[in-house]
Batch of 3 targets.
Target 1
Amino acid sequence: MLSPGRYIGLPDDEDDFDFVERFGTLKEELEDQMREEVRLNKLIMENLAKLEMNAKLHILILKKEMLKVKYSCIYYTFGL
């Protein structure tokens, strides 16, 4: 068996690497991470929708306040 260790004085390592087992483990990890990605993407979309709704609400509140100021100025100006 040829190995780089033989040429630089390192001991030969026993090759007990089981490709099928390692591949199965890595595949399971990837599948778990992909499920987590789906869950997190759903959560992000829900939070963005909440932010959008809050932004729309704040815009409506600001418009209402601007109308109050506008009508207050008219009443003050014309003495109504």
Target 2
Amino acid sequence: MNEEREHHDPRRSPPHGGTSGAAVAGLGMQFVVAILLFLFLGKWLDERFGTTPWLLIAGVFLGAGASFYSIYRRLMADQKREDEARKRR
């Protein structure tokens, strides 16, 4: 157990377990970027097809939904990794 803390890889989660602050900030940035990307894609498609504002609205919801799903998958994988680490101790 002490050896694990001494040889901790800083690119992984913190030695005490849990998700690092940088990882959480990265998830927040991912959320914002995905929503903005889909927002502008929807706006562009609305201008192209004359469907204002429907594709913009759909883009925002699609970006938010995709972001939530991605964040959920990431956090569940982190949780599973932490649970497995606890079982090994």
Target 3
Amino acid sequence: MGKFTVQQIRAAYKYNLKAGNGQIVATSPLFFSMEQCVEAIHWVCAHCGAPVEDSTMGENLGAQIKYQIYFNDKGGICFRLLDEKGSVFLLAEGYTAKRSCKMGIQSVRNNAPDAPIIN
């Protein structure tokens, strides 16, 4: 069973989703309050079954809640979970193979729904 861990970084907060083996599956951007951070975790739990847009293949699902697979600046394969406005709620970087990236998305889908929040 996965879990969300919340940590304070200076005056901001972020969370990590960890798989049952303790490995970090994905992380969040920074939030300015603990309340925003926890609200974002609940949003991820509610939307972790979103469809996948593979922008490396030119796919575009438009403005909707989705995972987006993309290349980072160093050519690594990454994913992020976006809301309808394109705001990032969860991201993972550094995959060398698209198959591994897709397995990361599946790990979010498997671990996030019932994951407890650990401060």
